[in-house]
Amino acid sequence: MKGILIYAFNNTNINYFRQAVWCADRVSKYLALPVTIVTDEASIGDTKHTHNIIISRAESGGYRVFNPSIRSQADIWYNGNRFQSYDLSPYDQTIVLDSDYIVCSDQLLKLFDSSIEVTAMKNVYDVTNRDQFDPYVSISDSRGLHHYWATVLYFRKSQLAKDFFDMLTMIRQNYHHYACLYRFRDSPFRNDFAVSIALTAVYGHIPDAVPVIPWSMANVFNDVDLSTEDQEIFHLTYTVDKKPRRVTITGQDFHFMNKHSLAKIYES
Amino acid sequence: MDTNQLTSHIRTRFDHAAAKKNLKEKYAARMTFGHNGGMFKSTPEMIVFLSLYGEQRIVLQDLYDTPIEVNAKDLIDEMQKKWYEQMNAWLVEWNELQKQR
Question: What is the per-residue pLDDT across B10-30, written as a single tens digit (0 to 9) for each?
Answer without folding.
Answer: 668 899 999 999 999 999 999
